[in-house]
Design brief:
about 240 residues; alpha+beta; Beta-clip-like; 3-stranded antiparallel β-sheet; about 25% helix
C-alpha cells in the first residue's frame, strides 16, 4: 500500500516541472517555503520599484484659493458662452457648500459655508418649468391653500420656473437692494436655466442675496433688507 512519491523535478528557472504536463491534472500540492519566499520576495520587489518609464508623478493637492484661481483662468481663456457652460459643469460636479437658516431680512435665508470668489456660479435655481397660464392658476391655488410665498422665477416671456413645491435651496435666497449676487439666464443643451452668480467676494456665514427686480405695481411689497440704499419696496 505504500508507494514511493516521485521526486519533484525543477526546471532551470527554479519552477516545478509538472509530471503530467498540466498543472490542473495534478491536483493540489503544497509549495515549498523556499519557493514561496522566493516568489513573494520577487513580487514585493517588483511592486516597490516600478520601472522608471512607468512611474506616475503626483502633484500636490489644490487649496481653495488655487482652485478659484484656476477656474478664473479657465474662464478667461474661453468665450462667454463656453465660459458659462464650463462653469455650469463645474457647479454640477462640485457644488458650493451652502445652508439655509433664519435670516434677519425675512424668514429663511441662504448662507455661504465656504468663501466664494467674485464672478462664480453659486447655485442653480431649480424648479418646474411652466407656462404663464399655469403660473396664474397655481398662484391662485397657493393663496387658497394658505401658502404665503410663491417661489416663481420668470425665465422669459413664455417660461416660468416654479420652485414652490419642487425646488432646491435657491428658493430661500432673499431680496436685497444692495445684493452680493445676481441672477443670469444661460442656455445649456438648448434649455434655458437660471443661475445665481456672485457679484463680489462672499465670506463664510454671509447671506446670499440678489435683486428680485419685481415690476412696478400699485400694491407695494415692503423691503426689509436694511441696506443703506434700500428702496423701501420690492416693486
Amino acid at each position: 500500500t505504500s508507494f514511493s512519491t516521485p521526486k519533484k523535478k525543477k526546471r532551470d528557472d527554479g519552477m516545478r516541472e509538472h509530471v503530467t504536463g498540466c498543472a490542473r491534472s495534478e491536483g493540489y500540492y503544497k509549495i515549498d517555503k523556499k519557493d514561496k519566499l522566493k516568489y513573494l520576495n520577487n513580487s514585493r520587489a517588483f511592486a516597490e520599484e516600478p520601472p522608471a518609464d512607468t512611474q506616475v508623478r503626483t502633484r500636490p493637492p489644490l487649496t481653495d484659493g488655487r482652485r478659484s484661481e484656476q477656474r478664473r483662468l479657465l474662464s478667461s481663456f474661453t468665450g462667454s458662452c463656453d465660459s458659462d457652460l464650463l462653469k455650469f459643469n463645474q457647479l454640477k460636479f462640485r457644488k458650493k457648500k451652502l445652508k439655509f437658516c433664519k435670516s434677519h431680512i425675512h424668514d429663511w435665508g441662504l448662507f455661504a459655508m465656504e468663501p466664494i470668489a467674485a464672478d462664480e456660479m453659486v447655485i442653480e435655481y431649480v424648479g418646474q418649468n411652466i407656462r404663464q397660464v399655469i403660473a396664474d392658476m397655481r398662484e391662485k391655488r397657493y393663496e387658497d391653500e394658505g401658502i404665503g410665498s410663491s417661489y416663481m422665477f420668470r425665465v422669459d416671456h413664455d417660461t416660468i420656473i416654479d420652485a414652490t413645491k419642487c425646488g432646491n435651496f435657491a428658493r430661500f435666497i432673499n431680496h436685497s437692494c444692495n445684493p452680493n449676487c445676481y441672477a443670469k439666464v444661460i442656455t445649456v443643451e438648448s434649455q434655458k436655466k437660471i443661475v445665481i452668480y456672485s457679484k463680489q467676494h462672499i465670506n463664510v456665514n454671509e447671506e446670499i442675496t440678489y435683486d428680485y427686480k419685481f415690476p412696478i405695481e400699485d400694491v407695494k411689497i415692503p423691503c426689509l433688507c436694511g441696506s443703506e440704499n434700500c428702496r423701501g419696496t420690492l416693486n
